[in-house]
Amino acid sequence: MERQAVLARVPAPQLFVVVDEMAVRRACGGPDVMAEQVEHLMSYAEEPHIQLHVVPMSAGMYSGLAGAFILADMPDGSRVGCVDNQLSAQIVEQPEGIASLGLSWEAVRGEALPLGQTLGLLKEAAKTWTS
Description:
By secondary structure, the protein is an alpha+beta fold. The protein has helices at 22-25, 31-45, 95-111, 115-130, and strands at residues 15-20, 50-55, 69-73, 79-84, 89-92.
């Protein structure tokens, strides 16, 4: 929660997030926890400086399943990446690595639902956890 405080800064940073649908469907902590998590995501998705999109299960296999990564555009115009795995995180600064992550990002975003459909999917998922 402390890391999320950065999203309340003035001016707020732009945040673009793509989440796999299974992240809101797979029980982690029980129905009450999942309902709260999905509601939390919906509240962030409605913020003007945050774009949250879900890749639906119907997308099948796509490049985002290879693992989580972050691309950050810095104030000086540079771009930095971070690739996470179970053992460590790797900072990516080399141009070819950044370019590769950029292509992966575009491919993942291409599979994601638009905001309206994302919110609909999240609302439906929230109902499954409260039923």
